[in-house]
Design a protein that fits this description.
- This protein is mainly alpha-helical and 308 residues long.
- Helices cover 66% and strands 4% of the residues.
- It has helices spanning 3-6, 8-27, 63-97, 103-120, 131-150, 157-163, 175-189, 195-218, 231-254, 262-281, 290-306; strands spanning 46-48, 222-223, 226-230, 258-260.
- It has a two-stranded antiparallel ribbon with strand order 1-4. A two-stranded antiparallel ribbon has the order 2-3.
- A hairpin with a 2-residue loop joins strand 2 (222-223) and strand 3.
- The longest helix has 35 residues, at 63-97.
Length: 308
């Protein structure tokens, strides 16, 4: 004898509950599929590479400890880069005073190396949001030195000899000052998140610097539209700017900041180098300094090629 035969009302209730449960289970929508977490955004030929890591709950570090570690790392990196920048200028000042190299060559070598080494040093800073501001302290200190000496509030003969053409302190307030302002701008705006800043520094420091050295030495054949610039200088700027840009992008790619489609990248870098070289060859130096025109043009061309 079953339970349904003993009590008709109870059997009817149990039957309704069974039918309702079965129908609800049948009609209810299936749970949404669990999609894999997307770690990166792919662009046509360039996309940023992830650098975040996932920690297990047992290894979680208090937020204060992480912030303190990043602060110490950034402070130490700033001190190291400042010391390196000061040592670089002091080294070339010593070489100039001992007549080992000429002042014009010393000035251009400082022009080439200081900006490139500054960009190369960015990976030693932490992944914190404030890291770019710590890095910007280095060119900011040099900016203050240029302003103080350019206004003759103090006199640093080594600095003046290393970065000026004629030894006039007022020169510090033109090309050299624009140079460090571009360094600050690239660090704050682009940092390690975009190839635009890296390429702008490569063209301003490496391309323009090498062009001046090679133009002075082998620049007998002048450009038809600007007799102050030479074919040797312009060709050297294109080649050196292109190679240094590729080298910097490869450096950041190897460290995991960028992942590049190199066939597309090489074409785009060549185009950026060509545009910057054409702008540098124009007879506009008296109106717009190369330390403004070259990096701004490189930024615009790189932005149109790579995006922000």
């Amino acid at each position: 004898m079953s339970l349904f035969s003993l009590h008709p009302t109870l059997s009817l209730l149990l039957l309704r509950r069974h039918v309702h449960t079965s129908t609800s289970h049948f009609l209810s929508p299936p749970p949404p599929p669990i999609l894999p977490h997307r770690h990166r955004h792919r662009h046509h030929f360039l996309y940023p590479s992830p650098r975040a890591t996932t920690a297990s709950p047992s290894l979680l570090i208090p937020r204060f400890s992480v912030s303190s570690g990043a602060l110490l790392q950034d402070a130490g990196a700033t001190a190291a880069v400042l010391a390196g920048a000061y040592g670089l200028v002091l080294t070339f000042d010593t070489l100039t005073q001992r007549n080992i190299i000429q002042q014009t060559l010393s000035r251009k070598l400082v022009h080439i190396l200081s900006g490139l080494l500054f960009a190369v040093s960015w990976p030693i800073f932490s992944n914190s949001v404030e890291a770019r501001y710590f890095a910007s302290i280095v060119p900011l200190v040099n900016c203050l030195r240029l302003v103080i000496n350019g206004l003759t509030l103090a006199t640093d003969e080594g600095l003046i000899k290393s970065v000026t053409r004629e030894g006039n302190p007022k020169e510090l307030l033109r090309g050299p000052l624009y140079y460090v302002l571009v360094l600050i701008f690239c660090a704050l705006v682009f940092w390690r998140e975009s190839p635009v800043g890296v390429m702008a520094l490569a063209m301003m420091c490496g391309g323009d610097g090498v062009a001046d050295i090679m133009g002075r030495r082998f620049g007998s054949a002048k450009l038809p539209h600007n007799h102050q610039k030479s074919w040797a200088g312009s060709i050297s700027m294109f080649i050196s700017g292109f190679l240094i840009s590729i080298g910097m992008l490869y450096y950041y790619s190897a460290l995991g900041y960028f992942e590049l489609d190199w066939m597309w990248t090489i074409q785009r870098v060549a185009w950026v180098a060509l545009v910057a070289t054409l702008v540098e060859s124009l007879p506009s130096t008296e109106t717009v300094d190369d330390n403004i025109s070259v990096p701004l043009t490189s930024m615009l061309a790189a932005y149109l090629s790579f995006g922000f």
